[in-house]
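Lecture 7 notes: from sequence to structure.

We start with a single chain of 275 residues. Read the sequence below before looking at the structure.
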Amino acid sequence: MSVTSFSIWFPTVVIGQALSGLVEGQLRVIFHEISSSEGKTMKLIVSFLTSLMLFCSSSLFADSFIFDNPNKYNIKVFDGDSLLYDKEEKGVYFGRNPKSNDFTVRVDEFTTPINLILNTSLNKNFYKGGCNYSFSLSKENGWAFIGGEFPCTKGQDHLKADSPLFTTKNDTDDPSDPTKKGIPVYPAVASVKDGFAADSLRGFLYPKDSRVYTEDNFLLIDLGIKPGSNIQIGFFDPYAVKYIACGDDVMPYSGKYTFTLTKDKKCVIAKTSAD
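Now the structure, written as tokens:
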């Protein structure tokens, strides 16, 4: 049996103190994968309490980071001059209310060291999600990240030319009517038609936010999806309590595509442009 588990650390040990500390501090979710000789996978069922905590944390934090890091590179993230994160973990999700205008992300052990300056959403009137950066780091496949819309920093693709890069984007805001806000959703992945598993461990995908799915993504690994495998992308609408499928069937997991959930709650598939 294969079990996927995760842990949540709060800034304090007392719940009452933790709730107040969440506004000032950060939430970190660490994913672990334990495989047995059978090589089978047990799907993780996230409890209501865990979902509630993730929902609260996503609402409180302006900016967030996701790292798929199978080779356990040391990752350093700074908010201005303040060190936020300095560890070697396979999968990380944490949120932060920024205190400066810039984040710095460093991965010194990479073949070509990564040193990025990323915009924060400080003092920007963003709808909930802020600047949310989704990274994939791999010795075998290279690296990529996706950011949000302005003022967030645009993403970069440094993956191998033949490495798949699927990006999910929440575009449910209605620009013609500012009073009609979009909805937070979970991206979802299936290896067979409509057999979706929601990517809920990393929190909601808020309007204007995006998330990357490379072959080093832990949800894809759990589902046994590799380059050339069948895959279907979708979104889970927590208000309608249903999945929204992208396309009528599975497609090969290859190439570079963006899957956009529109204001009409429909999914549009497009090849990702190189610019």
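Residues 48-60 form the longest helix (13 residues). Keep this in mind for problem set 3.
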